[in-house]
Design a protein that fits this description.
Number of strands: 5
Number of helices: 2
Oligomer: single chain
CATH superfamily: Beta-grasp domain
Shape: globular
Largest sheet: 5 strands, mixed
Amino acid sequence: MSVMVRIPTPLRRLTQGEDKVSVEGENLGEVVDALEAQFTGIKDRLCDEAGELRNFVNIYINGEDVRFLDGLKTDTSDGDEISVVPAVAGGSR
């Protein structure tokens, strides 16, 4: 099933500037693997050495945070929209 993944600006250099890409996958883990197959190096930005989502990367499927679902095992459906949102730190004094 085809899902659309929104790519944040810091990762667009890996997707040749594309802000949205379409990939196949029955769950988020398969989607990440499909992204890696098309855009080498993107999985390292999303997942740590143990293969889990990095703490500073938030991923939403249709607006729902996958950390409160099944993480990389979260099922996807045809037409789902996945958003990758890097954490932002800092602020003013």
